[in-house]
Design goal:
five-stranded antiparallel beta sheet, SH3 type barrels, alpha+beta, single chain
Length: 88
């Protein structure tokens, strides 16, 4: 199973609308991402990325919540806790 990951657009190359791309930050890791599926995306927007393609735009609130889930998963992999408040 593959998962889509949220990231923040830090720059956009608009030279070709079909192959529109940009740089997206994933917690400081910068990757080149195809933005063709989200033509309305702009710098500072959060996008959900899967296999190098931005699939949708997220609000900042949605992105932060999603990133909290990713952090929880990372922490759980390191040291599981039965008393976690994740589901509250």
């Amino acid at each position: 199973m593959c998962l889509a990951v949220p990231g923040k657009i830090i720059s956009i190359n608009d030279e070709n609308s079909v192959f529109r791309n940009g740089k997206v930050s994933f917690s400081g890791v910068i990757k080149e991402v195809n933005l063709a599926y989200v033509p309305e995306a702009k710098v500072d927007d959060y996008v959900v990325v899967h296999v190098g393609f931005a699939l949708s735009i997220l609000s900042e609130e949605q992105a932060q919540k999603n990133l909290e889930y990713w952090q929880y998963i990372q922490n759980f992999k390191e040291k599981p806790s039965v008393n976690s408040d994740f589901y509250k």
